[in-house]
Write a structure and sequence with these properties.
This protein has 8 helices and no strands. By secondary structure, it is mainly alpha-helical. The longest helix is centred in the N-terminal third of the chain and has 24 residues. The radius of gyration is 27 Å and the shape is elongated.
C-alpha cells in the first residue's frame, strides 16, 4: 500500500499544533505536553509502518471471484488464507455438508440454530407444522410465520 509520508506527517503535525494550544489552555506544563507529543509521534510512526507493511484483502466473495486483477496474496496463498466449513456428519445438521450451491449454503449459514432446527424438523424428520408447534410449545401460526421468514431470507440468496 502506498503511503505519502510527507502528507501524513503534515496532517499529524497540524493536529499536534491544535492539541498543543488546547493543552496550554487547560494549563498543562510544557514538560507534560512534550511527553504527550513524543508518545503520539512514536505511535504515528508505528501506524505508518503498519500501513506500509499491510496488504488488505477483499472480504466479499464476489469481489474475489470477479476481480480480474486478483490480489497476489489470494493467488499465491489462498489455501492458507481459507478456512473450510467443518461440519460433522453425525451432528443434527449433517445435511448442510451435502449442499453444493455456495449461495444457498451461505444463506443457510446466516440462519440461527433455531431456524436450522426448524428446517430439519420439516424436511428431514417429516414433522408437520402442528407437530413442530407442539414440540416447541407455541402455536401453529407462529411456526408458519417463522417458516415464511426463513423462506424470505433464503430467497434473497
Amino acid at each position: 500500500m502506498s503511503i505519502n509520508f510527507g502528507k501524513e506527517y503534515k496532517k499529524f503535525h497540524t493536529e499536534q499544533e491544535k492539541l498543543r494550544k488546547y493543552y496550554i489552555s487547560l494549563g498543562m506544563s510544557k514538560e507534560v505536553i512534550d511527553a504527550i507529543y513524543e508518545f503520539d509521534k512514536i505511535q504515528f510512526c508505528k501506524d505508518i509502518a503498519f500501513k506500509r507493511r499491510t496488504q488488505y484483502i477483499q472480504a466479499s466473495d464476489e469481489a474475489i471471484i470477479t476481480s480480474e486483477d486478483k490480489n497476489p496474496l489470494l493467488k499465491n496463498h489462498l489455501e492458507i488464507l481459507s478456512v473450510p466449513f467443518d461440519f460433522h456428519a453425525s451432528g443434527r445438521f449433517w445435511w448442510l455438508e451435502e449442499i453444493e450451491d455456495e449461495k444457498l449454503l451461505s444463506g443457510l449459514m446466516r440462519l440461527s440454530e433455531n431456524d436450522l432446527e426448524m428446517i430439519t424438523y420439516l424436511v428431514f424428520d417429516g414433522y408437520s407444522q402442528v407437530e413442530i408447534a407442539e414440540i416447541k410449545g407455541v402455536s401453529q401460526p407462529s411456526i408458519s410465520k417463522k417458516i415464511k421468514k426463513i423462506r424470505k431470507i433464503l430467497n434473497d440468496f
